[in-house]
Each structure stands twice: as structure tokens, then as C-alpha cells.
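Hi Y.,

Following your request, here is the sequence exactly as I used it, all 546 residues.
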Amino acid sequence: MKQTHPESTAATSLRVFTFAFLALLALHFPLLRLPYFWDEAGYYVPAARDLLLTGSFIPHTTPSNAHPPLVMAWLALWWKIFGYAPVVTRIAMLAIAAFGLTGLFRLARRLANTDVAIASVICTALYPVFFAQSSMAHVDMAAAAFTFWALDAYLARRCRTMALWFSLAVLAKETAILAPAALFLWEAIWTLAPSLARVIPSEAGSSVRGQSSRVEEPAFRFSKLASLAAPIIPLALWYAYHYSRTGFVFGNPEFFRYNVAATTNPLRIFLALLMRLYQSLGYMNLFVLTFLAAFAMRGPALQDGAETRPRIAIPRQLALLAVIAAYVLALSVIGGAVLARYMLPVVSLVIIIFVSTLWRRLSWWRAAICCVAIAFVAGWFINPPHGFSPEDNLAYSDFVRIHQHAAEFLAHRYPHARILTAWPANDELSQPFLGYVSQPMKVLRIEDFTAEELLATRDPMNYDQGERFDVAFVFSTKYDPPRSWFEHWQSWQRWKMRFFGYHRDVPPEAAAQILGGRVVYSEHRHGEWGAVIEMEDNNSLEEAKR
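Below is the corresponding structure, written out as C-alpha cells. Let me know if you'd prefer a different format.
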């Protein structure tokens, strides 16, 4: 029997959203009250709080990164209604994640069928990076969510709706412009080279795109191209507004240097490209799905009665490939940190394509999906055998709890001490609204906990008597596995330090020796650690304790 692809009704979408939201809420319940992590504390939450308190889209308590304000406005709205608290923030973000999974369901169902859509949503929701990001106050989840809805509208040939969703996506994060730009180029190629229709057949074997043999009218094709170009307008308006208020278009100069000006070395681009491909196909146990899909390709398509199970139409696959390629290539050139969350739209599209392959070619495809789901859930808790960002699985909760416990210790034992630490702990200890302390503490910031940086604190030319510190809070700013795959590859170590900001943190006991103190508190969790060091021979320490 031939597979049909019914329209996803509003009622179906509402049911999918409700189920996805409740499932995410239940799975994230132990995490909802955690204080903010890393970039949440460093930019997004302060920017949203500034919007709540002052009504300004340009943050003033943190340097502006020029990210569009849609997600910050969403958080400010929730805080206005329900009150300011981490639990409100995380539930607000879970609503966005559930909305994204609903759009992904619609997209996968339109591309394939309901079975593939359900399996794709389950795999995406359980994928460690998606799962961890679901409750975090970052802009990438919202950009991915609106992109899924826009791609569904694109395939449904609803141009105005597509333009709306893509416009919301770029107002969530500027890099979302990559998807409509890639599709614009794809559509332009079809317009300028109609002979491609005879080279790339549809699923049914016809010579045009999609699953029908109807040729698009020139007026409709122009409307589609105009709709794909439309999202550049709100993005340009935002940048014009940002420039008028700050004098900078793409954020503060340091942000622009880190994410654009310093990323154009050819070797760095090549290394970043390899990392992006790995994030798209293998990262956080995604290799399990990739391997199963490659294995499935060795066999023929299954039969449903007299008919062969259909693949996703080749032109549609190529359109998705254009979006994937745009993200992989562009984000190999720009972006100082090669973070996996930037690739959420890509990984989700890869999951749909690979799940469709399993459904089409493996009689035991449901068992294969179960294997993938188990591998993804394992990835929540088991860290990979190489360095990675803790925000890509539940390692971020270990980081937050270590800092939360250390902040409680410092506030109780050294309420008036001058504390030496690095970002983001300096904000955690000095900004009570981040959820770590009830009263601001005095902080002296250094860049990191390398031996060179710690030794510099002993130089009176760097720190005069008025800036001396009583205690230090040191912690792991980079995750290093006990036995790294690439530990003895010296070239890779040098490249990481040169291009990707890698450094080695000095362990607590060594840090205490360098600083001239002793460790009075420490905590270790799954390869991450934090410690408080009390300075010896410090006359002001007893006063700081009172």
C-alpha cells in the first residue's frame, strides 16, 4: 500500500506539543531549579533581565553581543507573568523545545510518514545535546525550532508562512539566516538551470521536484524566492537599531574579533570543518545512528504488499542537504567556539534522513531505533573520551552543583573576603540574581587557572596591596577526560591552544602551592572539580570571616 503524507492538523500539532512538553518537563524535573550555567550567566540571563527591568533591547549590565532579542523578550515575558526564578526560565525554554519538536514532527511527517516522524522526534529529544539544551537559556534552541516550522512550510509551498517562521528564526539568532539563504540559492539554481529537473528525478520517477509532476509557475517561483529573501529584512533592521544604540553592528569589538576576525586561518577552518562533520554524524553517540543507516543502505528497500517503501524524494533530500552544507561550511569559518549547540538544526535533519533510511530498509527498524535511543540516553551521563563542552550533556549540572556548593561554602565561611577566581564564577559570586549567593561578594578576576596566570597574581606590579585576595576559588574551566584519545598527539594540543582557546588548568593542590595557600574545600564530579584555597599569612583573613 502506498504511503500517504497527510497534513498535520492543528489538533495533531497541539497533541504533539502537549506530550512533548510534559515529557520534557518530567525528564528535566531534577534540573529545573539549578542556577545558571556559563553563557546563561554570562550573557543571556543578564540581557533578558535588563530587558525586563528597563525595557531596553540593548543590555547594559553585560557587553552587547548583538544577538537579536526575541528569546530574551520571551524570558522577560515569562518573568513578568510568573516571577523571576531559574525554574521559570527553564520551563519557558522547555516550551520552546517542545514547540521545536512539534515542528520537527510536522516536517518529518511531510517528508516521510507518521512512523518516521514519531521515531525522529523521540531520537531528537533524547539526543544528549538537544536534551541538555532544552532547558537552558540559550538562543540556539529557539532558532532551530522556528527553522523546523519554516522548513515544513517550505515543503508545503506556503510562502508567507515560511517567511514568517524564518523571520522569527533570525530574530532568535542571526545564524538562522543560513537556512533560507541556502534554500534561496537552491531555488535559484533550479530557476536558472531547469534542465536539472531531467537529471534529478522525483520519488515517483517524474522529472520535477517533489512527488508530483506539476511544474511551478514563474509567479509562484518568484514568490518563493522573495519569501526566502524576506528574513534578511528584520535582521537588517535589528542590526541598524543595534548600531544606532551602540555604534557597533555585530556586537562589541572583542566579540566580533573572537567570532569572526580571528577565525579565518585556513588551518583553523579545516580543523573546524572536521569538528563540524563529527558533530553532524558522530558526536555524543550519534555514530550509532549513522552506522545503522550505513548498514541499512547495503540492503534493498522493503516491500509493503506490492509496493516498495518510498524514500524521501531526492529533490527534497537535496534541499535539506543544501541547508546542512550551509551550516557546516559557514560555522566552520565563523564562531570562535565550535559549540555543538550551533548545529542543532543540522543534527535534527540528519536524524530524520537516517531514521527514514532505517524505516525503508530494515525490517527490525524499531529495534534499531531503540538501540539509538539507549545510546543517546547513555550519552546524558557518560562523557566522551575526549574534551567536550559540559553543556552538551548532563555534565553541565555537575559544573553548576560544584559552583553552587562552593558559593555556599564561601558565603558561609568568608562573607567579607576578597575572592580570586575566573569567569563565570566572578559573576556567580557578585551577581545574586544568578542564583548562587544571596549577597554580592568581593571578587578579583583572572582569566583562567593556568600556572602562568596564577603566578602572575604574585607579581606586585599586577596586584597592589589594595587588590590582594583572601581566598581563591579555582575550578575546571575545561573538561579533560582521564584518558584522552588525543592526549599524546602534540600537534593537536598545539592547534587547540592556538585556534580554540584550549589551556590546562592547574589542579587544586598545585594551585594552592603557587598561590601560597592551602585547600580548605574541594569537590569532584565526573572529571570536573572545584576548590577553595585559603591564603596563609593573611592578616585580613580573620576579619573577612566575620
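The longest strand covers residues 517-525.

Thanks again,
Q.
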